[in-house]
Each structure stands twice: as structure tokens, then as C-alpha cells.
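Summary for the steering committee. One of the milestones for this cycle was to obtain a three-dimensional model of the protein with 4'-deoxy-4'-aminopyridoxal-5'-phosphate bound, which we needed before selecting residues for the alanine scan. The sequence and ligand used are listed below.
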Amino acid sequence: MGNEIYFDNSATTRISEEALKTYLSVARSEYGNPSSLHGMGKDAETVLKDARQSISKTVGDAAGGTVLFTSGGTEANNLAILGRAHAKPRFKGKTILTSAGEHASVKMPLAALADEGYRIVEIPTTGGRLDPEAILKLATPDVILASVMLVNNETGALYDVPAVAAALRRSCPDAILHVDATQAYLKVPFSVKTLGCGLLTLSSHKIEGPKGTGALWVDPGVIRNRGLSPILLGGGQETGLRSGTEDPPSCAAFAKAAAVGYSALSERVSRLTELRERLLATLASDPRLSGVRVNLPPVSAPHIVSLTLPRIKSETMLHALSARGIYVSSGSACSSHGKHGTSALSAFGLSDPDADATIRVSFSHRNTTEQVDLFCDALSEEIARLARF
Ligand code: PMP
């Protein structure tokens, strides 16, 4: 590590030393296949069982739900959506509710289901909130699934997901709620109970765990009623819902990062809030930054700030800052290569040119207020320099 300022923590984080140590220790000693019946298999299975328990605790699961390990948030979202839609023949062609600004790993499986004849309806997210009237109107009795993120990866908007859960409970007897908590996990306090969800997506690499690992938490009722079908078929691992030999070192390291983050949650939230407030205060008071507009949702997570620059393309700024050792992203790094790059920003209400001039700053609890100040100085210098072209 040098003097870089890494403000792209929503794209990914550096693995923590604790998680790395856990990974190495399990990889070295518990290398059996968790499905093997001998002692080494049992040891590996125990590692997975402990990891599941730790993760369950961090999402406030008191109901005995199942943590299914996946290859990340993308696979967990695909499993939740495709697995739910295909769980019962009578679900074919039914309605799925979602929000307008979802991540591509939700949008794309929904688009595939639309092609199969399912009806996909979107709750508008203009201004960074779920339209409450649309929630009530769109929660019709034929809804089988609602898939809504808790925190938007581009704007940091914290959505009123419990309002969706309440509408489903009232009007949709067949519906379960899937929450993509990839960006919310260990940044805002929540539990599966307060959200009222049946399925919850988590990703390890956003919380200082290893990349390529994630989980789908599944409510016991969903398992009991066979309300979810697998998308990967094979040896029947993970309760038959996700075949493939598990990766105990990664799962244990993910669980370690989650447990450490959970026990430090309130300090981390305070830290992130301090960083965000420092940035917002400087943007409001420094005349050199007066042309920068903050895309501020009414309620937001503390780690993501979306900034629209004065007529400077986000990519140009990203490279200029990168040359100074400062790392931010243009919109969302996960989608910045695709045609869905600006969808959440458009759904927020930004015009295409504004969306193209928008950068995302995302903090870790390891960042400092000094780094925020250095970033603000660099940003103002680059705005002045690039405005000349
Ligand atoms: N959902 C959201 C909201 C995300 O931000 C991301 C990652 N950018 C994902 C899902 C996908 O997670 P993963 O990278 O673990 O596949």
C-alpha cells in the first residue's frame, strides 16, 4: 500500500488481514471435500456450518433460515429471481415487482423472464426513493416475487423496503420478497425480520472478504414450501439448491469478515458518516467546487456519494484522479462497461449528459478525513484544469 486514496469501496474492498488469515489457515488444513464422508470431509463441513451460523447472526436471523453459499452477489440474485420464478409451474407468466434502478444482476435475469412471458413491473425511484403510491398500486394478487435492493450502488439511496414487504403481505398471497443487500450489508443496520424478506443477497468482497463468494439467505418457509428451485444442477450441495463443491476457505473468510464487521458496525457507521459529512460540508462551502452537484437521496447509506460534475465526463475525471493516485468510479464500476451503465442514475432523474458527468465516491471505514480533504483539493484542481479544454 502506498499513498493512494481508494474511494471505490462499493466496487470492491481490500480483503482484511483477519479474513486473509482465516482463508490461509482453512486452505492449508481443512482441505477435504465437505461432502466426503471421512473425517477430513467432516472437518470441512464443520467449517461451512460455522460460517453459515456466523453469517446468519449478522443478518439477525432468529428463524433458522438457510445460508446458501454462492459465487457472489450476482449468482445469489440470479438464483433468487430465476429460482423463484421457476419454482412452480403455476408461477409461469405471473407478475414480478422490482425497482427501476436495480443492478444488472437483477435486471438481466428479469429481462430473461420477460422474454419467457413473465410480467415485470417497476417501482419508480425518482429522487432516490421508492414511489409509495406505486408500491401500493403495483402490489397485485398475482405477484409471485418482489426483488428490490436495500441500498442503491450508484446513489447510495436507502430504500423503504419494509413498505414493499407490508404491501406484499396485504395484497399478494404468493409473493416473497427478495432483497439485494449487497451494498447495504454492514453499512446500515438491518435484519431479515425488519426487512420482512424471504430471500436476501450478500456479497463477500464488498465487506473485506474474498472475491468470488457470496450468499443467498433463505427463509425456512421458502425451503419448506419448495418455493425456490436451483439454477445449477449437479451433486445437490447446499440443500440441493446450489450444486458444486463448496469453497470452505472463502466461505470461512467471508464469515470472518462479516463477524468482524458486525461487531464493529456502529463504530464503522459513525466513521463513514463523518467522512460523508466532511465531503458534503466542503462541497457546500468551497467556492472552487460550487459547480459540483450532489445527487442526494432523501435517506441514504453513509458510504456512497454521487457527484455530477460541471460539464466534465466522469471517465475523464476518473482518469485524471487516477493519475494522482485517487480512485473513484464513474457511476457503478460493475456496470460501467455495459449499456446499463447509467440506468440507476436515469431512474434517479438525471439526464443522459448529467449521468455521463457523474462520479461515485465510496468510502471504507479505513479512509480518513485527511483523504477527503486531499480528494476535494484534487477535484477542484482538475475541474479548473479540465474546464479549459
Ligand atoms: N448488487 C449490487 C447492488 C451490487 O453493487 C453488486 C456489485 N457491484 C452486485 C449485486 C453483484 O455482486 P458481486 O460482485 O458479488 O457479483
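Key point for the committee: The pocket of 4'-deoxy-4'-aminopyridoxal-5'-phosphate is lined by residues 72-74, 77, 103, 105, 149, 153, 180, 182-183, 203, 205, 214, 334 (CB under 6 Å).
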